[in-house]
Amino acid sequence: MPPPPPPGLAERERRWLEVFRRWTTLARSAEPLLSDAEGDRVAQALGELRDDFRGPYARWLGDLEEGRCRLPQLKPEAMKGLLLAWLSDEVDFAFVCTGCGLEYPHHRAPPLSAWKCLPGKRPLVGPPPWYDLPTFFRACPHCGASDYDVEWSHQVAGGGRGWQELDGYVGVDAGRRV
Question: pTM (2 decimals)?
Answer without folding.
Answer: 0.86
